[in-house]
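step=encode ok
step=design start
structure_in=
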């Protein structure tokens, strides 16, 4: 068997373990390039590039929110839906501690700590999504229905 031409990350091990089909896409990572940069490199619509954002509530408990690359998360609306006082982005250090991934390479798959996952409801209407494969400059293309393995709560918090 030949060696794959993409990194074998905890996310890739998770996808393989759960028999989730994916296509790997490497691109030159750019600091602060975000989803706009990756979408340009892969020649795909930024709306189909899904970012994995690590947040924390007022009790400093972590959670994951999956959002379209061209949208922002209304943390106020998410806090209201979840009946929490406050939700804010986790620090890069805390996000790394929970997930095992560096910011810019965070995948919702294969995290060190099981965190609740909230996904923008409209993601599931796309035919295909591009989501981080667990390393900066590495996205995987999957069917949005494959996110169900994470047992996400569907929310409408796009801003």
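sequence_out=
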């Amino acid at each position: 068997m030949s060696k794959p031409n993409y990194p074998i990350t905890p996310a890739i091990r998770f996808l393989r373990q759960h028999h989730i089909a994916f296509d790997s896409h490497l691109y030159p990572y750019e600091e602060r390039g975000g989803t706009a940069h990756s979408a340009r490199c892969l020649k795909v619509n930024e709306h189909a590039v899904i970012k994995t954002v690590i947040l924390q509530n007022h009790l400093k408990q972590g959670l994951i929110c999956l959002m379209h690359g061209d949208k922002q998360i209304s943390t106020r609306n998410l806090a209201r839906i979840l009946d929490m006082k406050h939700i804010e982005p986790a620090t890069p250090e805390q996000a790394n501690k929970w997930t095992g991934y560096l910011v810019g390479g965070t995948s919702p798959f294969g995290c060190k700590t099981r965190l609740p996952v909230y996904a923008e409801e409209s993601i599931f209407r796309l035919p295909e999504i591009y989501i981080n494969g667990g390393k900066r400059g590495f996205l995987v293309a999957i069917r949005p229905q494959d996110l169900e393995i994470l047992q996400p709560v569907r929310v409408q918090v796009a801003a």
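step=design ok
step=annotate ok -> Strands lie at 23-26, 49-57, 62-68, 87-89, 117-120, 129-135, 138-142, 153-155.
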